[in-house]
Amino acid sequence: MRTLLAWLDKLSSKPAVLGLSVLAAFLLQTSVFTHLAVLGVKPDLLMVVVACWGLLYGPRAGFVAGMVTGLAQGVMLGQYIGLFALVKALVGFAVGVVESKIFKENIWVPTVAVGAAVLAHEFLVWLCLKVLGVPTPAVTILTVAVPGSVYSMLAAPLAYRQLFLYNVAERAREESVAGGAGQATARR
Amino acid sequence: MVSFFGRYRRFALALTALILAVVLMSVTARERETVLLIERALIEAFAPVQSWLDGMAAGIRGGVEDLGAISRLREENEGLRAKAEAYDVTLNRLRELEIENERLRALLGFAQTVDFDYVVANVVARNADNWFSRVTIDRGSADGVAKDMPVVTSQGLVGRVIGVSTNVSVVQLLTDRNSGVGALIQTSRAAGIVTGQGDQSSLVTMMLFERDAAVKVSDAVVTSGFGQIYPPGLFIGRVVEVEKDEYGLLKYAKVHPGVGFGQLEEVLVIVNAGADRAAGGGSGG
Predict the structure, then answer these.
(1) Which chain A residues have a beta carbon less than 8 Å from that of B51?
(2) Where in chain B are the domains?
(3) Which of B25, B61, B125 is nearest residue A76 as measured by Cβ atoms?
(4) Predicted confidence (pLDDT) per residue in A98-127, tens digit
(5) Residues B22-57: pLDDT tens digits?
(6) CATH T-level topology, domain B180-258
């Protein structure tokens, strides 16, 4: 029983939840979300999750989430491995930098922030593809990047809410642990 | 010195990760003959879950679409019955032509065309981004699939295999921005290259080699067999628009592919396309 509790405790740790959320987003994005494509454009759930991690936990978490997610995405593509890791890590980091400056409790604020993050991601991917010599006309920013970021904003509240609730629960747990430690010190 | 590295350890780690990503991106930008072990492990591990999720999502979407389509299907059924009767007549004519074709081939001493050998595969996943058009199929080297094998459905050409693992493969679709297929207008034999538009549109672009090439809307486009990958005569799609570039030097045709890429579920991998070309004495696929 104690082992099971310890295992569950480990599973609810931040790195484990980060890994699980990235894995879930990756599996959904490559299967279920392809059926939600409108005019060939689908929401980028992976970038949504990366941006949410950045928004809730700061630049370091945004960077790590972006790097891990982007690498998995590149491997599945079979080419340009590292492209999405680079771009997602940079955007995840940038989103994390604004973490302390935005009001996270209002769902519209992170939704717009996620939309902006996806747009920045798509623009950077377009730029990298240009540098790599892949044919990418400028019009694809309007036909792929803009609709993609708007569509992704629809998925943002759902993903953000789950991670936000985890964030609140984790903070409460940390505070109770810190409070317990403080009381023990005072008693001594 | 130690404190310097201790202080900037995180920054150095992040920078190293970014540099590695750039190196990896440059190294894998070109197509490779082999798939890395880590790629193989990840693709193989995810494929069963992706397949299950994809099947579930496709089922739900199919159910929703079926509900709205019942009345339309009734009308379609009536029309199809009439068409089927007309096709019976055409089929008899085709049988006659086939016999005549065989006779003429024998007369001219041409080698018989080798029938294609297929491996049937299911689409288990698609790429996560909006910039490329690729799918993962549940057949790999263990089933005889190899890099550059053409992939088709009964509706026409799907694309080609670009990455092979033991039990799964990655297929580059015709609509992918990096795809290029030698093609012909079936009736006029005007040659060109069909490429993906890279804007997630369902259309592909055929750049014709001659600016005066005879091409009109609804012309069928088939593979030319020039090159090394695709055998000749595979149906690609139909022309929906013809245009010239702004200087009038090049002629383009917008082609609507025969394959509905959004609804791809099962595909056929042609495993002996090269053998067919060799037997047919063609100039390559």
Answers:
(1) 31
(2) 180-258
(3) B125
(4) 877 777 778 888 899 999 999 999 999 999
(5) 888 888 887 777 777 888 888 888 888 888 888 888
(6) Thrombin, subunit H (2.40.10)
